[in-house]
């Protein structure tokens, strides 16, 4: 892992991600959880500007239609967005990895049947499933929420993780099945290694780098689904809804997370473009940061695994070694013929 920190791609991505994540907690600790509100700007006792205010030195990202500083809202909502995305990917991998290894080893005969049921899910947008499952949880009812923000985030993380577990499990199972038929795995099976030992000692170490890359891809996919749900007014932590028939406000985010900021302000794209563009740019930066970390990690581990040279120790004769090698080849040939039959 030390070589990972020598990769500039990984370091740059990590710095961007840490800036938003750590900066969010520090910003809330220093400035509080309520963004600064500036509805009017006065000069010589006259109102010269009203919200939404454009970007300036006082408000680098401008303000929204209610005068709240966009920079403060971005920093306050960063932790909810990033933690939720990483949590969804982590829960997804935690469930999918053991299922995938089981598909590739224990359930080999049923693997094609399982894939036949899972493959159609690739053509269905995950946003549709997420919207149908999360609407009862995130849309505020008339009597108000009965759960806290973090409880709704946990429920959302679990549900969004379960949606794509079959697809991720199928990918891992196919890769594990390919490795399961390698010669060194056949040799281990011939020598009596159990499938559990093969998974823990051979398959998981060989797939560790690919699993890390897959985790990063799941984080990116989750961030994209968050933006889609934001356009559908389902925000991380819940959507605050006004049921006033006369002067009701549009749906808005409770936790200032980026999906809510993007979705609730998208209608202002023509007149006040900084409102939807600021959270969209932040989404893009985090996605690029995760992609850079994946690229840096891939470059660090590629070509790193080398077979160490062993010293030649004459414990047995050369004839005995050749005889053992011949016996092992014969056993492997018999095992392959039995599998073909």
Automatic annotation (TrEMBL):
It is a multi-pass membrane protein. Belongs to the binding-protein-dependent transport system permease family. The chain crosses the membrane at residues 9-31, 80-108, 120-138, 153-172, 211-236, 274-294. The keyword Membrane applies. This is ABC transporter permease. Signal peptide: none annotated. Residues 78-294 form the ABC transmembrane type-1 domain. Keywords: Membrane, Transmembrane, Transmembrane helix, Transport. InterPro entries: MetI-like (IPR000515), MetI-like_sf (IPR035906). One of its GO terms (cellular component) is plasma membrane. GO terms for biological process: transmembrane transport. Its main location: membrane. It comes from Psychrobacillus vulpis.
